[in-house]
Amino acid sequence: LDPEISAVVLAHDPTFTYRKLCIAAQYLRNPDTLFIVTNMDSGDLIDNGRIMPGTGSMASALMFATGRDPINTGKGGSFVLPYLMTKYDVDPSELMCIGDRLDTDIALGKQARCKTALPLTGVTSRETLLSTPEELQPTYVMENLGCLAGLDMKFHL
């Protein structure tokens, strides 16, 4: 192993293999090695409604193999959006988190007290939405992103 490597960063990788899992796990056995993920999506919609394993699925394998929890730098993480709101002095009421996943995109917006919008063109179906707990219900639900044009929004550039 290369002693200069100080972090394992896991992002979407359609070529993720057992070999990569083993190498990453060996680096993560060092408690000083950072374990970073870009998101914890369990799956990604590809075509015809099929879902392939997402970054969260790969991260779960590493978490189980090493007993380590990653730092989530993307959606669903606890520090990225608050950091950006502080850095750019933006009030949550001025933001809208838009995404097709209730467990990451909408959860991120809810956590930050932003408005949220769920287009029904991705992972979350209308049926799933109907059985979703209130705490993960989006502010707006739309057939597609084109519907955003109908919302009364003000942008400050």
TrEMBL record:
It comes from the Eukaryota. One of its GO terms (molecular function) is phosphatase activity. One of its GO terms (cellular component) is cytoplasm. Pfam families: Hydrolase_like (PF13242). This is Phosphoglycolate phosphatase. It comes from Amorphochlora amoebiformis.
